[in-house]
């Protein structure tokens, strides 16, 4: 009988409770061994959902526990680097939420850590989906033709200071550390790296700040040009009361593929023929389940973490290039 991988969940914010926790409880190969949260009130609320699990405010408790094999770090980017460092040094496998740090320079420092290429997986969660695999196949095979025109927009963080004051406050604090394209555009940048296999050769950016209350521009945009002439228009929009819809549309001379962000249904039309790749279920549940499955394989079968640090660095490098271009124009 296979022994489950004992995992500590560190950081109990929205993404941990809404996505990581259900995935851990569903997968029989994983055992939730501990909950870690520095906010006592939040720790009490979440631990009540799984009262049999050890709950603590100290990450050191789980790092010195030799019975715990791995940690999932669902922590803010500005505290994650040190936690990655200490967890790897303690011999744990690590799945860390993206981005690993607010700046690329801080992430590059992680390259020298022991076991980083074997034991660190980065939470670029939304690459783990059959629709993304199919989209990558279409681009790699040239089925849509070349050059491509891609419209990508990420519009998920609505301003609702009355209805969701805690979330609104978190977004305001986040803007003090990095631009939305760095914190929220990284999935789109990772997807572009997957599709093209290289960075753009030319990039221009722009930015907009819609309120004096915001420490940085809450709307970031860029035009990316690739070596084959393909062009991407990317926008990340935060903190409007009503947001435009997110989109990811790939258009080529032979047809078009539309990845619908809310569901990850993929609609394809090539040379007049239509195909729909229906999602296997809820997007978040599916992506987090497959991400955890691959993490558990890394823990038990020593398969390379997917994605690892290098893929995360490439995505963050593209985000940072866009952020720099936005600030120059903003």
* Biggest β-sheet strands, sense, barrel: 8 strands, mixed
Number of strands: 14
The run of helices and strands is: EHEHEHEHEHHEHEHHHEEEEEEEHH
Rounded radius of gyration (Å): 20 Å
CATH topology of the largest domain: Dihydrodipicolinate Reductase, domain 2
Shape: globular
Number of domains: 2
Mean pLDDT: 95
Secondary structure class reads alpha/beta
* N-C termini distance: 58 Å
Query: Percent of residues in helical segments?
Result: 25-40%
Assembly level: single chain
Poorly predicted segments: none
Could you explain the architecture of this structure?
This protein is of the alpha/beta class. The protein folds into two domains: 145 residues, Rossmann fold, CATH 3.40.50; 170 residues, 2-Layer Sandwich (Dihydrodipicolinate Reductase, domain 2), CATH 3.30.360.10. The strands form two sheets. Strands 8-9-10-7-11-12-13-14 form an eight-stranded mixed sheet. α2 links the parallel β2 and β3. The protein is globular and about 55 Å long. It starts with a strand and ends with a helix. The mean pLDDT is 95.
């Amino acid at each position: 009988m296979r022994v489950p991988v004992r995992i500590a969940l560190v950081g109990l914010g929205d993404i941990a409770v809404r996505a990581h926790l259900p995935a851990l409880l569903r997968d029989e190969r994983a055992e939730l061994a501990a909950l870690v949260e520095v906010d006592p009130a939040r720790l009490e609320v979440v631990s009540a959902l799984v009262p049999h699990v050890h709950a603590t405010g100290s990450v050191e408790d789980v790092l010195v526990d030799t019975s715990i094999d791995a940690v999932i770090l669902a922590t803010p980017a500005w505290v994650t680097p040190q936690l990655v460092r200490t967890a790897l040094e303690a011999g744990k496998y690590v799945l860390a939420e993206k981005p690993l740090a607010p700046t690329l320079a801080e992430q590059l420092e992680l390259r020298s850590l022991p076991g980083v290429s074997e034991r660190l997986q980065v939470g670029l969660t939304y690459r783990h989906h059959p629709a993304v695999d199919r989209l990558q196949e279409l681009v790699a095979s040239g089925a849509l033709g070349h050059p491509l025109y891609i419209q990508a927009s990420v519009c998920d963080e609505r301003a609702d200071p009355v209805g969701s004051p805690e979330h609104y406050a978190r977004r305001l604090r986040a803007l003090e550390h990095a631009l939305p394209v760095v914190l929220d555009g990284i999935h789109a940048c990772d997807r572009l790296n997957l599709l093209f296999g290289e960075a753009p050769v030319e990039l221009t950016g722009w930015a907009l700040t819609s309120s004096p209350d915001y420490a940085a521009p809450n709307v970031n945009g860029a035009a990316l040009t690739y070596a084959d002439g393909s062009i991407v228009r990317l926008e990340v929009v935060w903190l409007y009361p009503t947001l435009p819809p997110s989109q990811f549309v790939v258009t080529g001379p032979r047809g078009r593929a539309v990845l619908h962000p809310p569901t990850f249904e993929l609609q394809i039309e090539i040379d007049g023929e239509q195909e729909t790749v229906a999602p296997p279920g809820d997007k978040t549940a599916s992506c987090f389940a497959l991400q955890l499955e691959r993490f558990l394989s890394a823990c038990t079968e020593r398969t390379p973490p997917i994605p690892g640090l290098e893929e995360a660095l490439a995505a963050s490098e593209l985000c940072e290039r866009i952020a720099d271009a936005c600030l120059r124009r903003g």
